[in-house]
Records
---
Amino acid sequence: MYYGLTWAKIREAMCLAIPVRIVSIDGDEAETEIAGVRRRVSIVFTPEAKLGDYVLLHTGYAIGVVDEAEAEETLKLLEEIASLSEVH
Amino acid sequence: MKFIDEYQDSKLARGLAYKIAQRSTKTIRLMEFCGGHTHAILRYGIRQLVPKTVELRSGPGCPVCVTATTDLDKAIALAHLPDVIITTFGDMIRVPGSYSSLQKAKAEGADVRIVYSTIDAIEIAKANSGKSVSFIGIGFETTAPTIAASILKAQQEKIENFHVLSLNKLTPPVMKALLDSGEVKLDGIIGPGHVSVIIGSHPYKFIPRDYGVACVISGFEPLDILLCIDKLVEQIEKGEPKVEIAYPRGVKPEGNRKARQLMEKVFEIGEANWRGIGIVPQSGLKIREKYERFDADKAFSVSLKPPREPKGCRCGDVIRGAAMPLECKLFRKACTPESPVGPCMVSSEGACAAYYQYGTLENLQGF
């Protein structure tokens, strides 16, 4: 990659956030995990986050809780579209 | 990785691309506001996947790129002050200002440190009580709450040597400025996903209402972006522009109230200076008087020479979507990631960097 511009770096770019799983909560901080990597993050913006939830991590802060039901819905919709496209 | 891998499936992507091609009859122009989207679009070859009727333009959603040269010069001047430690997100340090860069200042002896988070900047302030630790606060609504949180933490813990140079900017006002200028005719906007996690979908309502332009908020994986483009094409074909969320696992219509509360507690809205666009009213965040002792602008005074823009650089045009990176004579010649002339080639969210990195022949010819 040119000058080390890896996808990992892009994912940490400023408008991006990655979904990480909460493994423990300690006040307004949480221990999170993604692909075996652990990171302590602030959950000051997501006080509703629970153990096992996925949160969107942006520059050290959880900015939102991933809505798993909506994620399922979107995947279903995508699969539906793709299967309809195959018919044609 | 959950919530990432499943949205990268190539078979589903082909299915979606087929559906978009079936739907699309009108020639349309869409703008991806966010630099993160620009990179994903180039990286996953989405420009080639969508039909020729759909043109994609990059917008001003790269925080480093839109930072005005005068503001950059101010950050560099701050770095040269005695007993000041500059903390900043990584991309900023390589951006050339009028006469120098933070990287050059560092080479000349200034203490400039890259941080991943404002939390790190606070820790540096705690460990260096004899010095001022100034954070260069760039970013949109996604990042502004994190900067607000750091100022509140500094106040709570009485960390008096922490300062922020607030250059934060707001998304909807600059969208309005671009639409008002009419320079680039747009049919639809790929809305920024993580800005919208914070602000929700309501602040974009003026886009279809006042300008007849479609707006669909998108996630950052290739299937998210294709789904967003499909919804945009559908709206435009039907002639029914509206605001939609194609990233409901992340974005709620009401956004994140808690984050906005903290942001509004610390910041008030004022004008901001955007590279390539100029002063846009109501598009910036200033630190409120109550927290002014953390405001680097108030704590330090620096004298600046008149700003100089790099000769021949078309970053300003690229930021407005008025030019594609390849239309700049310097692109890939005088301006490369190793030796960037303008910020769009430096930042990991800059359009020129994306076109340089993923610029296959198809990508480069595709405009």
---
Amino acid sequence: MKTILASLGHLGRLEEVLEAAIHIAKKNDGHVIGYYPIPGPNRIVYAAPGSDFPLDDHITRLYDEHLPLTKAKFEDRMRRSGVEFEWREDKRFEPVLTQGILEHGREADIIILGHDAAGSKTAKEEVGFIADVVMGAGRPVLVVPPATGKEFKADKIAIGWNASRESCRAAFDSLPLLEKASDVMLAWINPEKKLGKNEKLPGAELAAALARHDVPVTIKGISNRNRTPKAIINMVEEHDIDLLVIGAYGHSRLREQILGGVTEHILKNLPCPVLLGN
Amino acid sequence: MTRRIKTILVSLNKAQFFDSNMAMAAQIAQEYDSHIIGLYVIPSAIVYTAPYGYGGPINYTEMNRYYRSKANGVEDDFNDYVRKHKLNAEWRLVNSLGTFIGDTVIEHARESDLVILGNDNSIQDSVEFEGRIVTETGRPVLIVPNTTRNDFRFKRSVIGWDGSREAARAAFDAIPLLRMSKVTEVTSFNAHKERELTGTSPGSELINVLSRHGVNAEVVAEKTKKSVSQALIDRAETGDLLVIGAFGHSRLTETVLGGVTRKTLKQMPCPVLMSN
């Protein structure tokens, strides 16, 4: 992961995003791009065309106002860290941030997004936004929760594995992080639901493939009476996991991305930094 | 740490492509010291129902014997090849649960870094098979054309770049192969139509990103009156590796492929790496 796109579009989550970006950059000798999109005014005009109905540009102005301070904070933080960096501000035409992040994110090894506190009012809208980025980017997306006082690290990593296309993408996309972890757990939630009692846990072949990359991997079947998303969150807390790697399920229905239940639940109750692959 | 390819799955059901597929796998394995898995899938019988009553008995034993003897032949070739070239390898003979062996290939492919398939572009089925595997595995798939060539050194590689999600997938998945290539062209067609406002050429940022991974890349922005797929194929004809994102989605049992993907699979100008 040499090129890391830290999206600074989430005002107020700069610290958390940069901490994660710096951590990954230091481990991989990487290059951090501070990407600051400025959304355009909302051009939905309610009056007849040609009339002088004013544009709704309060969001544009908000981002314009925050620009100098964010830039100063970013450059200061990056200089202190000693990591190679680049500031990129992008004045967009459209009133949403997604398109800009996608355009720039597709030319990076990983995209880092900030996230609101679990259960907050905006969390639901944010999940939709994250879904758009994850489905559209084709690159792994790291979602960082608000600061909990815990330092960002990626020593103990859990991979949610169910042999699907998406979880396979996530597992291989996170390889640069897995290679540097001290403990990687390949977790299959409630394996008895899909298999007969005597069958061995699937994922043995994936574990072998990861071990060839020198990843210290162990397979673990996690039986839990709860449903899958809750079981994953319990697992994260029980095993004190630093980073969770999961495949993001979803499909696009015209403009809006519909996320799978597990992905959505985990994003709404983000227990730790989560790396999503699709 | 740089990206590597440590586990290569080679689908060896098409015995006629054995030499070219193994030559490709061996070349990559020698670069990255990888482990090669030779996969042979025995399909289960198709039971047809005749319109008027019973379609006749199926000789399962005979069918199984036929595929087993074929598989044994391939296994011997595989073991000989591996011994001769001193490769780390493993032979897998699997019974498929369905009549479509692709599902079994997909299952095994999901647990490896790279999949290698042979392409027989004279058969329509072959295109469907490869398209399905590319869109369903989530792993990069390297498709080797139907040639007698056994030297696949990558001198000039071509990335078809249109800034899409799939193109990004393919470009990043291809990094270990592109590092083996002398030159990599990030190619886009008729981009001036879209990028008039910004004035940048597409992929100019991507070459920086690739060079951080040790890939020697350059931008090629071509204006053409031909269709994009034809222009891409013409460009790739002189190259040794074409990297493109595969457009497609599966609709229950059938995969709907995008136009460029389909045309490339039919014409196969050179080995193609596809990702979705």
